[in-house]
Amino acid sequence: MPEYNYKAVDQNGKQHSASCYALDETSLEGELKEKGYWLIDATKTKKNRKNTKVKVTRPMLIEFCISMSAMLGSGIGIVEAIQSVLEESDNEGFQTVLRDIADNITAGNTLVSALEQYPSVFPEQMCNLINAAEYSGNLVEAFKEISDYLQWTESLVKDVKQVSLYPTIVLIVVGIFILVLFTFVVPKFTELLMSVNVPLPLITQVVIGISDTVQAYWYLFLLMPFCLFKCSQFCIRRFSHLALFADRVKLKLPIFGEVIKMLCLSRFTHNMAILTRSGIPILQSLSLCRNLVGNRVISDAILEAQSAVNQGRTMTEVFKSYAVFPPTLLRMMVIGEETGSLERSLNHISDRYDDEIPRKIKKIMGIMEPMIMVMLIGIVGTVVVAIFMPLMSLMGSVG
Asked: What residues does the Type II secretion system protein GspF domain cover (predicted)?
């Protein structure tokens, strides 16, 4: 549970400053109101976080969680379990992290406080689940939940990489071919056409112009994708309104927008189900899910839903006003909220996305392959027509 430094005023308008533990700012505000105070400002206490360049892969975290769940379930203590994982690991950096965590726990700190010192190794969601599990005394189930979620994420990433590998290679090869075509092939024909002094049709002039540009600035065409990517990343990080606009555009992209939306909603339902099942209050679960969905449009909807739940309303009342949430998902969530089985409904939704997302991705990649080939044929055909039109005109005048 995080610690907050806060400023508040009492009924007489007198200002008070102090610190206390709370699930989140909403919970803190509620606790202070019960005592007759009104919250002015609150900041989370900065913990002693250690900067580490340890490269910890997802499979390493999965193995760590599986081992911890098995050993804790068999009655082995936390420190002994961590030391066992440490001895089995072949990554020196991860061994150093685990050794420090074991030392922290031995010194009297909690497991979650030790893990939170390494935010680049242990994600926030993992720390919050373990935090809740330490209070409920159910660490075994928490580590199992985390390993299941990480395995699902790893499987999804592998599926995406596998189905996108061939189209990506084809697209790169096509890009190189087009660059070579306009840099070396077209200029040779341009010299021939100029030497015979034949009138050039508009399409030929356009192709020659493109060829001259590519030949003069070919290095810019190679650097442009990288520069655009880095520039967009900087702008998104620097300007929040641009980040929101970019995320809104992503959801409306043809072909890919539907998959992006499904991935974000899948993250939301997966994480929400895990958090609620682990005993974390719904307000804190919503707060955590905001940072896990990967899209600001959906994140804003979750923030509004968090405020609605705090006022005694339901999440689905807010989600209905956002077109990004499909009717089927909303109906299942309504049933879950009305029957008190929200976790079960979220699990059903996430299971459906687990089946649907890989099929959707494979379908899209299957469409992309012929599209790339059609694009290549179109470009080559245009160049051929542009070159042979003046040659045919020359042959006709000679004949």
From this structure: 64-187, 268-390
